[in-house]
Structure formats: structure tokens, C-alpha cells
Specification:
By secondary structure, this protein is α+β, with helices and mostly antiparallel strands. The chain has helices spanning about 10-25, 50-55, 70-75, 85-90, 95-105, 120-125, 215-230, 265, 270-280, 310, 340-350, 355-370; strands spanning about 5, 25-30, 35-40, 60, 110-115, 130-135, 145, 165-170, 175-180, 190, 195-200, 200-210, 235-245, 245-255, 295-300, 315-320, 330-335. Helix 1 links the parallel strand 1 and strand 2 (about 25-30). Helix 1 packs across helix 9 (about 270-280) and helix 11 (about 340-350) packs antiparallel against helix 12 (about 355-370). It is globular, with a radius of gyration of 21 Å. The chain starts with a strand and ends with a helix.
Length: about 375
């Protein structure tokens, strides 16, 4: 089976390496900063020359799109094994991503590039009183974002202009995402839409399948299909959207497996990690499941490990082995059941083992499940 190297040594690559065992696919990781090779799911770090890496791995993918412009990464992207080069050129830069969406006539928030601070006033005139200003590169989990209001002081650093876009503030009812894959033979596979809740710019929990999105699924699939076909993309891609009265509006795209797809580890015959490897290597084209159990994915942010999580029935806990820091994603828990009522009971069983913050987010998820 074709060996795969994942650029990045974080949790997404870790879970991809674990998923490789399902297909007999060797999956190793590479630290994108040091260049050290991390075999499988171990924490062993090895030095390996780039020419040997290219000979060893038929496929090189990545767990993050913000790779930077370094001699190491430029050399990796120049190898014949590097996959989806066009997507990794366009999607990490918000300006290029927005231009592509406009070209494809895929709905997205109206936007404007901010080359200088004076452009902010014209952006308010064109886009509205309330804006979201974002760094064109490297912003994630709420970083590199500001929300200026017309005629009020703002805290955007002067040196940031020239690397920013402004977007109209979107009036939306909820945030949803679609995770899907395109295969080299042109076939597509999509999971159901997922409902996501963010706090302080960080995803806190997801519900999959998202309640009451049946009417949105086909349109979302058409949008993501057009994007992946345009990029000649092979593998899993995530599309984050706002649900509005006018329909879905694309917020961001990620050319990789995605946090909002973690629920598929419990809620599908194939997880997003299985699917990504299957598409990249041609190992198997999975069937389309006819139904999905109701699933909650709870992110574990800045908290301590609790060994009792693993002992609870119906709980899948993934712990990433990272050093604890505030607002850092350290793991996640998947809970799944055949019905929403059964899932509510599982969530309630977990709550006594969570701190107040995580219990509060899970209570919100329970309220949405109960209302669905």
C-alpha cells in the first residue's frame, strides 16, 4: 500500500496515522518547523534527508494549510509526491480564496482588501457599519480577527494593513459545515451537514448530522463539488458556512480533515480520516451510508485529563498528548446514539465528570438535541 507522509505533527496527523491501520497504509508525520520525521503514532523523532523522504513516500499531504514560506516546506512542495498543490496555494490566503469563490459564483460574504488604514472607512461605506476584519494568512481559532464599527476607534495594528480583508458582518442563524471528499476518478463522497458552536473563535461542540438541514444538503454538496473540481482536488475538504435567510454563505475552506468532522469517528462507517486516506491512495471507494447515528463532538479546551472519561459507556475520548495551555485544543469526546433522546442521556451521564465550562457547552448541545 502507498506510504503517506503528513506534514504537521499535531492531532490531525496523529489520527490520520491511526486510521491508516484500517487500510494497511503506513502513515508517518513530519514536523513542519524542524523537519523531523515522527513515525506513526509514536513521539519518536528522526532526521531524514529530503531526497530519502521523497523516495520513501508516494503521497505527501498536510494537516494544516498555513505552512509558511521556508526552504524546508518549499522543498517539500516541490517534490513529485506533494498532493493538491493548487489548493494549498490558493486556500491558505483569504484574499485568493475569496477571489476563487467569486469566480465560481459560490455565495460568500461581500469583502474588500485593505491595503492601507484609510481603506477601512471606504469598506464601511461599501460593506456596512459592522465589519469583520481578518488577516489574509494564518488566522485561526479567533486569532487575527477584529470587528470594527464605523466612526469608532479600532484596535487593528497599523502594520497589519496590506495583509487584511474586510467582510460584511453576516446575519446568520447558525454555523454549519460540510466535509466531503473527491476521488481521483471524479467520484464524490459527502457526510451530512454538521452544526457547530464557537466561543471566543474556537469550536466548542458539533452536532452531526445537523438537525433540520435536509433541505440544505444538496445545495451545499453542489457548492463544495464545484470548488473541489475547480482545484482538481483529491481528498477530504471542509467547507464552513453561515446559514442565512438567503441560504448558505461560505465562510472558510480547509484543504484537509477538519475539527468539525471529528464526529464521523463515531457517527459513520468511515471517519473523515479513513476517507481522506482512501481518496489519496485509491485504497477503496467507500459506500454511501444510508443513515447516521446522532452524534455530539465536544472539544476539550485547556482542561486537565480525566481518566474516568474513557471508562464511561458510549464515550469515545481522544486525548492528543499536548502540553496543557489555556484555550488550547487538547482532545475531544464523541458521544453517539440511535436517537436524540438516547444521546441526551449519554450526555447527562458525562456531565458530572466535566468542569463547569465544558459542562455548560454540553448542556447547550443537549438543549439543541432536545429541540430537534
Amino acid at each position: 500500500m502507498k506510504p503517506v507522509l503528513v506534514v504537521g505533527a499535531g492531532q490531525l496527523g496523529l489520527m490520520m496515522a491511526a486510521a491508516g491501520a484500517r487500510f494497511g497504509i503506513p502513515v508517518d508525520r513530519m514536523d513542519h518547523v524542524t523537519g523531523e520525521l515522527v513515525p506513526g503514532t509514536s513521539n519518536l523523532r528522526l532526521q531524514m534527508p529530503l531526497d530519502e523522504i521523497e523516495q520513501r513516500y508516494d503521497i505527501i499531504t498536510a494537516e494544516l494549510e498555513h505552512l509558511g514560506d521556508t526552504p524546508l516546506l518549499n522543498s517539500v512542495k516541490a517534490t513529485k509526491s506533494w498532493c493538491n498543490g493548487t489548493a494549498f496555494e490558493i486556500l491558505p490566503t483569504r484574499e485568493k480564496q475569496k477571489e476563487m469563490l467569486d469566480e465560481l459564483q459560490v455565495a460568500t460574504a461581500p469583502w474588500q482588501f485593505l491595503s492601507a488604514e484609510a481603506d477601512l472607512a471606504s469598506a464601511h461605506e461599501t460593506l456596512g457599519q459592522k465589519l469583520v476584519v481578518k488577516s489574509i494568512r494564518d488566522g485561526y481559532d479567533g486569532k487575527g480577527q477584529w470587528r470594527p464599527v464605523a466612526d469608532q476607534a479600532h484596535d487593528i495594528p497599523a502594520e497589519a494593513f496590506g495583509g487584511l480583508i474586510a467582510e460584511s458582518m453576516v446575519d446568520f442563524s447558525r454555523e454549519v459545515s460540510l466535509v466531503g471528499a473527491r476521488f481521483a476518478n471524479g467520484e464524490y463522497y459527502f457526510f451530512p451537514l454538521t452544526e457547530n458552536y464557537h466561543h471566543e473563535g474556537i469550536l466548542r461542540y458539533s452536532l452531526g448530522p445537523a438537525p433540520k438541514t435536509e433541505a440544505l444538503q444538496a445545495g451545499a454538496q453542489a457548492m463544495l463539488s464545484a470548488i473541489m473540481e475547480h482545484l482538481d482536488y483529491v481528498g477530504v475538504m471542509a467547507m464552513e458556512c453561515f446559514q442565512t435567510e438567503q441560504g448558505l454563505i461560505v465562510n472558510e475552506l480547509a484543504p484537509r480533515v477538519h475539527n468539525s468532522g471529528h464526529w464521523t469517528q463515531a457517527g459513520s462507517d468511515y471517519s473523515q480520516f479513513d476517507l481522506h486516506l482512501s481518496a489519496l491512495t485509491g485504497a477503496a471507494v467507500p459506500h454511501q451510508p444510508e443513515s447516521f447515528p446522532v452524534t455530539v463532538m465536544l472539544n476539550l479546551i485547556g482542561c486537565e485529563w480525566n481518566a474516568e472519561w474513557q471508562a464511561l459507556p458510549g464515550i469515545q475520548c481522544y486525548w492528543y498528548g499536548k502540553e496543557r495551555r489555556d484555550k488550547r485544543k487538547l482532545g475531544h469526546i464523541n458521544l453517539t446514539a440511535a436517537t436524540a433522546a438516547e444521546l441526551v442521556k449519554q450526555c447527562q451521564n458525562l456531565m458530572p465528570y466535566l468542569d463547569a465550562e465544558h459542562k455548560g457547552f454540553l448542556e447547550e448541545a443537549v438543549a439543541l438535541l432536545s429541540a430537534s
